[in-house]
Amino acid sequence: MLELPAPTVWPMIAALGVTLMAGGLVTHAIVSAVGVLLALMGAVGWWKDVFPQERVESVALRPDHERARPVVVSPATVEHLRLGEAGHRVRVPVEVQPYAAGIRGGIIGGLAMAVVALLYGLVAQDSVWYPINLLAGVAIPGMAGLSSEGLRAFSLPALIIGVIVHGVISVLAGLLYAVILPMLPRRHLLWGGLVAPLLWTGLVWATLGVVNPALNARIDWVWFIASQIAFGLTTGFVVSRAQPIATMQTWPLAARAGVETTGIDLGRERDR
User: At 4, is the secondary structure helix, strand, or coil?
Assistant: First the structure.
């Protein structure tokens, strides 16, 4: 038997706590409070794993005939990489989604989110202008301080600002989907349609509560989450259905070297 340090999760919990403590400085005090609690729990648990006696576990050793044989030194030389050989991974991921798919997904997802927001205005506020005026309150000072009747009324400046803000954010989020989704594991709709909307909704809630508490109090967060999920599902579907583009790492080494040194796509010139 061989004694080894026992596995422990407490260092990871302590690290997560320290991360949340720092994250709360730019989000919300509750985040820092949770981080302090986790950091203390992790520190105490880690301490108990080490003092007064270190926790160990016994690992059975294999019999001699089942162990790996000693390494035999070989006088052979190492085979060097030859110019033009393919299959060497130098970039991750292997394929990426085109930016056009991100822009298209952001526009379509923005329309889906707008439909949910306008539906909220009709059902809950009896006015389609209510969510538009709330969105314009991000850029127009004093908009969030209006009465409920004022937010239900039509406002041309609020409409223009709301459409611009919503369009820009939707397109940028769509581009972000096109860049990040190929680097995530499978089930892109789960990541883009549920995980990402919940993460940025929490960030918006924590940040808005500090930056603009009046606007934060006017938002119906259940409908807000529903609209973000609609955006995430639609954008994720459009981006994931696009034809991916292979990165340079799939090219022969000579072609990659030619592009990186001369800026000329040798593979494309060869095909011509």
Answer: strand
According to DSSP, residue 2 is labeled E
Q: What is the pLDDT of residues 25-57, one digit of tens each?
A: 888 889 999 999 999 999 999 999 888 888 888
DSSP state, residue 204: H
Q: How far apart are CA 11 and CA 136, in angstroms?
A: 44
Three-class SS state of 234: helix
Question: How many angstroms separate the CA atoms of 51 and 63, rounded?
Answer: 33
d(CA 74, CA 115): 69
The Cα 235–Cα 251 span in angstroms is: 30
Residues 233-268: tens digit of each pLDDT: 888 888 888 888 777 665 555 444 545 444 444 444
Is the pTM value of this prediction over 0.90? Answer: no
Q: Phi and psi of 46, rounded to 5°?
A: -65, -40
Give the separation between CA 17 and CA 32, rounded to whole angstroms. Answer: 8
Report the alpha-carbon distance of residue 12 to residue 17 in Å, rounded: 9
d(CA 144, CA 133): 8
